[in-house]
Write a structure and sequence with these properties.
This protein has 10 helices and 11 strands. By secondary structure, the chain is α+β, with helices and mostly antiparallel strands.
């Protein structure tokens, strides 16, 4: 019998093509810093949080101290990191749980970014430093109960009342809604769609926790209601007019999802690989069977390709070359890959795969939301279709 061939050390299943080797020194530091936070503070508690539907609000100060809120912004206490670093933050946080990545994604891309891009200097000075520290949490009020994929049909309205504005309507499925100190609410006006900063405690403004979720259970998700909420003129973002403003915010957030969903996939794959190496059936560990190796290899292939795409999109953004349709392709691909990997890993774990003691079922259930919010798979397919045909088929 021929002696076994020495293959050297195994390649890393969660980074098979060595994508992380392409990172710069600062990017690696960001990755390692967030990974430590997840390993030391998130993973020990997140299973319990998911099971009891509790948002781990005690983690907000640590996230703020690390500069993870508004990390891509410059000035006003923000870190000024590049797009790849933001992606790494999202990837490591979602390796812990989608709830933590959602918290940071909404705060950074959907609240702080529009204040920075479309707000007045007074609004930037008032809100951004406190939001960067985590002292103030924001939420993004765009989706409405009757049609999340069709924001142009929004029924929330703001009308002028002298110098003030009066806001009426409702928003649904709002991440951070119940805990937010300020809501960035998009409403129809006589001028078109405008964005308004609505502070918690404003008369006529209420936020309710969405109950009975089977996904994103460790996330704070709410419904927002506005009944004759009177707002001063300085609450409006002066440079935001039309749907292009909120949609541009979603493009920023979707790049983070491209990376974040792959963190969930990495967590599932690492767990399944370890389980298959230890689980003995019919006298041998599962990794000794061709069927299991083929399934693991297929997941490695899909994850590696998605990681390359995510890095490519971040580098294009850093060069100012990223088109929104390319982000749609990335969000669609990463969510599809991560969801497929989570399901496959859940199956490889057998009966144990449905227990919250393992990560696969938690990530699988979370990803059912991630593939839906900020543009469903179908919406992103149609965005890519429009980009290559020139025809809008929405």
């Amino acid at each position: 019998m021929s002696p076994p061939v020495d293959r050297g050390p195994n390649l890393d299943a969660t980074d098979f093509l060595g994508v992380d080797a392409e990172l710069g020194a600062e990017e690696r530091t960001v990755r390692d810093t967030v990974a430590r936070l997840v390993n030391e503070r998130v993973l020990p508690i997140i299973g319990e949080c998911f099971e009891s539907a509790r948002f781990p609000q005690e983690l907000i100060p640590a996230i703020g101290q690390l500069g993870l809120f508004g990390s891509s912004l410059r000035g006003h206490g923000c870190a000024g990191l590049n797009a790849t670093s933001y992606g790494l933050i999202c990837r490591e946080l979602e390796r812990g749980d989608s709830a933590l990545r959602s918290l940071v994604s909404v705060q950074s891309s959907l609240c702080m970014h529009p204040i920075d891009a479309f707000g007045s200097e007074a609004q930037r000075q008032r809100w951004l430093p406190a939001m960067a520290r985590g002292d103030v949490i924001g939420c993004f009020g765009l989706t409405e109960p009757h049609g999340g994929s069709d924001p142009a049909s929004m029924r929330t309205i703001a009308r002028r009342a002298g110098a003030d504005w009066v806001l009426n309507g409702s928003k649904m499925w709002i991440t951070n809604g119940p805990i937010a100190h300020v809501a960035l609410v998009w409403a129809q006006t006589d001028e078109g769609v405008r964005g308004f900063l609505v502070e918690r405690g404003s008369r006529g403004f209420t936020a309710q926790e969405v109950q009975h979720k089977f996904s994103l259970r460790a996330s704070s998700t709410g419904a927002l209601f506005f009944d004759e909420v009177r707002l001063p003129p300085e609450s409006m973002l002066p440079q935001a007019l039309g749907l292009a403003a909120p949609l541009s915010c979603l493009s920023h957030a979707r790049l983070g999802i491209c990376w974040g969903a792959l963190g969930a996939a990495q967590a599932c794959l690492a767990e399944a690989l370890a389980h298959c190496a230890e689980r003995v059936l019919f006298g041998r560990a599962l990794v000794h069977t061709q069927a299991v190796q083929i399934r693991l290899a297929e997941m490695v292939r899909a994850l590696a390709a998605a990681q390359l795409l995510a890095l490519h999109l971040a580098r294009r953004k850093e060069r100012g070359e990223l088109d929104p349709a390319q982000i749609s392709l990335g969000k669609w691909n990463s969510c599809r890959v991560a969801l497929d990997i989570a399901r496959e890993c859940r199956d490889l774990l057998g009966g144990a795969g449905i227990s919250v003691e393992h990560v696969a079922i938690r990530h699988l259930l979370n990803l059912e939301s991630v593939v839906t919010y900020e543009g469903t798979q179908t919406i992103h397919q149609l965005a890519v279709g429009r980009a290559v045909t020139g025809v809008a088929a929405f």
